[in-house]
Amino acid sequence: MAARGRGACTVTPPTPDWLRFPDTDPEEPAEPPEGDASPTPVVDADDWWGRDAQFWLVLLAAVGVAAATLLAVSTPPAAGFETSLPPAFPLAYWVAFYGVLAACVAVYFLSAADGSAYWKHALALVLADYAVYFFLPLVRGYLLYGRGTSDILVHIGDVKNILATGSIWSGSWYPVQHVFISELVLLGFPLRGAEYVVEFAFTAVFVASFGALLRTMTDGRRAIAYGLAAGTPLVYTIFQTTIIPSFLSVMLFPTVLLVLERVRRSDSPTYLLVLTVFAVGIALTHPVTGGLLAVLVVASTVIGVVYSWRTGAAVERIPARLALLVVPVVYAWYINFRQTETSIRQIALAWATGGTTPVEGAAGQAAGAALTPFELVVRFVQLYGVIFVFLGLAGLFGLYVAWELLRHRRGRYAEVFATGQFGVGFAVAVGFFTVYLIEFEPTRVSRYLVVMAVLLVGLLLVRTTEWRPRRRTVAQVVLALSLVSATALGANAAYTSNKQLTQTEYEGVAFSLTHKAPDAPVRTAAVSHKIEWYTYGDVSGSIWPPRVRTGLPDRLGYTNHTYANQTFPRTYVATLEYDRRFYTDPYFTPAQQDDLFIYGEDDLETMRNDPTVARVYDNGAFETWYIAEGRANTTAANGTT
Predict the structure, then answer these.
(1) Sign of the four-CA dihedral 55, 57, 63, 66
(2) Residue 168 above 50 pLDDT?
(3) pLDDT digits over 272-316, tens only?
(4) Backbone CA torsion sign across 344, 345, 346, 352
């Protein structure tokens, strides 16, 4: 490979035919003369799947977006607590929503087949469809989509702190995300809706950047449509409808890969500066993702070396030193945090004592889930079906690419690069699954793998355009149906049951924390300390030590005791409508509903008549009770003090 640098001349040998992508092959139809806006079609213009089909599909999708928007905004807000968001909207909305996505995926494929620009209309309609979808919790009047132990409570609490003090809290692990949301609020977006703006914006970047990435990696304009088709499903499901920094940061990886490819090809200072901005931003958004970005850069260099060694083709390589853009930032920012030391100690202790690994934890949860084997399979498809569609397609294609490279010493750089990164992502996921490293949730620990799976599926779509007509048609129909199925599975899993924070719950918590005795905690069934962070941020400094404690005994302890003060020490007990209704959601099987039951209206009536209990707050959906240890309060047994 020729020397690189200012003034150096790089001599690139001719590209072998087997390295070319379809849009650069000699037999590719020539570009139209200047002034002719229509490229030569690959399919017959009179064929049923030509331009007319794309026009009508786009028109149908536009009508669907309009109908979905009208149906969504005309749905009245929730009158009270509801266990799930999707059933609150009419069936016609969901038919329109999913119909738009299916039609646009079809347009992507048809547009790639004949080189039309209809993919632009499809992209706009997909984003419009998702824009309404992401704001559904706001339409229903929820205060927040996230409650209980959800991390979003902490993140919004930190944003409130920045807005109140004008500075970043000294213990903020995720300053970029919190500052970004704060800036949106200062620009005029209400805090109550800013989270949905962020979720949608990052998803839009994630989808669109795959189109640009495929275009750059394959040097083919038609690859844009295939990249958009692969990027359309909500592969991170519920994590794309919330503001979790580990996912917001990884959704920038397709853009980072695009910039890395530009750096590899041109060594341009401009792209290097852009890469530096992304590296620092991602590192300060989430430390683990910052580490994964360093892994990505180093792996890119290694893949380039292996590719040149196996094929003998000269390709520019990504300098491994670019990883240094990330490592010092991660170290400098996080080394002084107490939480950093605590996490390291926690990991070391788990390794030393043989703590439970994520795989063992997941197996234990599955075993205790009160589900039959068939129900476990159904639940698995519901939660992770979209991911495994991509992993299955990417895995098969990756094996073929690896076999081509290792057995026949040939392969296209883009495909080998994506396959290598997919293998790295698999190794990272296995590492997180088998070793205790703080993170447990399957989608969270495989987020690197999923990005590379989407990229590999996009390249598979490009590869199919070279196959014989009948084989190509069958393959693209199967892949189109797979992506439509993945799109439906992803959107179906993005809103799960019992995640919404209602105004009544927030008001009840705020009152209870403000008016309680200083030395008595508030005990709840499913409200965590994180609600204190959301309520106060860190402005008052009163959220430590935690005053909310999670966990109530079955039937409020009345199964084994006559009076509440025989079960509880001096404390406050908060009872919510949520506690008495969450388990009734149809998502849970009858066996799960029996297992999840905590207490019912009869137990609440017993507490109302208990002389050791005084009701101090009641807003209809949230009650707070005061239990004084060792004494009976008969005067307040049936009323509100």
Answers:
(1) negative
(2) yes
(3) 899 989 988 998 888 889 889 989 999 999 999 999 999 988 888
(4) positive
| Global pTM value | 0.87
Using H for helix, E for strand and C for coil, what is the string for 534-566?
HHHCCCCCCCCCCCEEECCCHHHHCCCCCCHHH
End-to-end CA distance of the chain: 83
Please report the sign of the dihedral spanned by the C-alpha atoms of residue 463, residue 468, residue 471, residue 476: positive
Contact yes or no for 98/132 (Cβ under 8 A): no
DSSP code, position 321: G
Do residues 107 and 61 make contact, with C-beta atoms less than 8 angstroms apart? yes
Gap between the Cα atoms of 39 and 225, Å rounded: 15
Using CA atoms, how far apart are residues 624 and 616, in angstroms rounded to an integer?
6
Return the SS3 of 574: strand
Residue 579 sits at the vertex; the CA angle it makes with 136 and 199, to the nearest 5 degrees, is 25
Identify the helix (H) or strand (E) that includes residue 266: helix 253-266
What is the DSSP secondary-structure string of 349-401?
HHHHHTPPPHHHHHHHHHHTS---HHHHHHHHHHHHHHHHHHHHHHHHHHHHH
Query: What b/e sequence results for 93-107 when a residue is b if at least 16 CB atoms lie within 10 Å of its CB, and e otherwise?
Result: bbebbbbbbbbbbbb
Residue with the two structure tokens 């790089």? 10
**How many Cβ atoms from other residues are within 10 Å of residue 556's Cβ?**
25
- Tell me the residue ranges of DSSP E strands in 143-254: 144-145
Residue in this structure with the two tokens 């824009």, named with its chain if needed: 131
> Are the C-beta atoms of residues 193 and 240 closer than 8 Å to each other?
no
